[in-house]
Amino acid sequence: MMLNIVIDGQKVKAKEGSTILENARTLKIEIPTLCHHGELTPFGACRLCSVEVKTNGKWQIATSCNTPAEDGMEVITGSDRVKESRKAAAQLLYYKYPETQAVKEIAQKLGVKVSPGKAEGHDCILCGLCVRTCQEIVGVGALTFRDRGRDRDIDEPVIDFDPSACIGCGSCAYVCPTGYVKMEYDGDGERRIIWDKVFKMVPCKVCGRYFAPEDQLKYISKTTGVPFSELTTCVDCR
Ligand code: SF4
Ligand code: FES
Which pTM does this prediction carry? Predict the structure, then answer.
């Protein structure tokens, strides 16, 4: 069933289960996000994606990334109240992580006064992107939030890393918006280090370049049934 909603005065046919953010994006309306990724379950942590929503005759601020469209819903994405709400969320993030460039940039964009110059810090802002990517896309679940409900308000990273589950694929480092998750190399690329775990890299059997952790290729072999020996050619040489 399609749902009829109105965003900034424009009528939209929304799919059941779709979010306000998804529908706003089909109209090319820009909404800032930090903890959102289209392929992952919404998390609602940063609150930068706020909009005003009218349900049952009442206007309220809601986070668009995790609020599902409802039939008859009206949404406003650019009111003063929305701007204030996003700015307040950005202010809070900047207050907590003033040294993190990704936070500084978005805070500045949303009207927060920030100190000049580049920030060099790489804090974990608890956006949950790495945890969700590892669970939902990689399917490994090596990262988990420690008692998420209680600890989300404290400033320290509360991510548990399970070295026995991690395959070293690096998806968490790729998705992390702040650079907190670091992926490093050692010995001409022979080893990859991530979350302090050292992975042995496999050289491409054609060009000899180290291209993937052995554990990752073993995992792919196990989950797909493709023999390990057929996985040892890098993308460029395939
Ligand atoms: S490590 Fe990076 S991706 Fe993971 S929760 Fe922290 S900021 Fe987000
Ligand atoms: S993008 Fe919606 S709460 Fe972070």
Answer: 0.92
Work out how many domains the chain is built from and give that number. Answer: 2
The pair phi, psi for residue 24, each rounded to 5°, is -65, -35
**116 near 141, Cβ under 8 Å?**
no
Please classify residue 184 by burial: count the beta carbons closer than 10 Å to its beta carbon, then call 0-12 exposed, 13-18 middle and 19+ buried: exposed
- Its domain, for residue 159, covers 129-237
Say if ligand 2 is within 6 A of residue 65 CB: yes
CATH number, residue 56:
3.10.20.740
Confidence of residue 238 (pLDDT cuts 50, 70, 90): confident
Pocket test residue of 36, 124, 138, 172 for ligand 1, highest count of atoms within 8 A of CB: 124
